Amino acid sequence: MDFQLTDDQRALQAGMRELLAARFDREALRAAVDRPGLDRSLWRALGDAGFFALRLPEREGGVGLGLPEAVLVFEEAGRALLPGPLVATHLAAGTVEGAATGEAVVTRVDGALVAWLDEADHVQGGAGEATPVRSLDPLTPLHRTHGTRTATVVEAVLLSAAEQLGSAARSTDLAVQHARGREQFGQPVGAFQAVKHLCADMLVRTEVARAAVYAAAVTEDPYEIAGAKLLADEAAVRGARDCLQVHGGMGFTWEADVHLHLKRAWVRAGQWQSAEQATETLASAL
């Protein structure tokens, strides 16, 4: 079976990367960190680009594509650290008015936590009484709720894994760029064996996760999706840690973007399906 991307899929992925480069570059990312809040104009731009309506049938005003294509655009969103309840709004595109076009922001209760509650126009799952909690990620505001726990949505797990995959790939790129450009003792730090090993390990984890995420998007098997989420979480978290180590002391500074990838990866690893839940899902299949 050929799992290579088609020309149309590559064009879709490239188009989303170009859109995010134009509308949410590093300057916009830093502005979002300094001034928290959801950019509604960007949200509507995503709607205009078909981000939320990607899997809606064309007869319903959607793009008419499938889960594999959704994974590709969510990978790009994770690469750019795009903020907002992207997964919940995407899943609500066919049921909540305005979600498909980006006119409405939809969030969903995930266990005891709900993200972007204050910015949401619709809350799925019943938030009930909610208390704000301090989030590790400055771009993911969280509330703790006492509402009804909603069932795990396998598509949400996979799309979250795709975001983790994009973040892992970006962390790898940042590490390689720094290793090539930063010099110590008269040569690039990438010439040192320890740094080479870190970068190589990051690449291997990212590509293994990519294979798992892409395959799960084709099969839509809940057990394969659980495995993909585990691998993508590991690639994103460990990749960001290794990227920070490659950057050395400057990686710990606020000015570097490495810490933003690490914090988002930590938060996302606990969303939709945690490592413990994914492990239990896989164990139940044995």
Order of helices and strands: HHHHHEEEEEHEEHHHH
Percent in strands: 5-15%
Q: Going across the major beta sheet, what is the strand order?
A: 2-5-4
Supply Rg. 19 Å
Structural summary, described in words:
This protein is mainly α and 286 residues long. The chain has ten helices and seven strands. It has helices at 7-23, 26-34, 40-48, 67-80, 86-91, 154-181, 193-219, 222-247, 258-269, 275-284, and strands at 106-108, 113-115, 122-124, 130-133, 142-145, 183-184, 187-188. Strands 2-5-4 form a three-stranded antiparallel sheet, with no helix packed on it. It has a two-stranded parallel ribbon with strand order 1-3. Strand 6 and strand 7 form a beta hairpin. Helix 6 packs antiparallel against helix 9 (258-269) and helix 7 (193-219) runs antiparallel to helix 8 (222-247). The two termini are 25 Å apart. The mean pLDDT is 91.
Question: In terms of topology, how is this protein built?
Answer:
Layout: H1 7-23, H2 26-34, H3 40-48, H4 67-80, H5 86-91, E1 106-108, E2 113-115, E3 122-124, E4 130-133, E5 142-145, H6 154-181, E6 183-184, E7 187-188, H7 193-219, H8 222-247, H9 258-269, H10 275-284
Helix pairs in contact: 1-4, 4-6, 6-7, 6-8, 6-9, 7-8, 8-9, 8-10
Question: Keywords for this structure?
Answer:
286 residues, mainly alpha, three-stranded antiparallel beta sheet, two-stranded parallel ribbon, 10 helices, 7 strands, globular
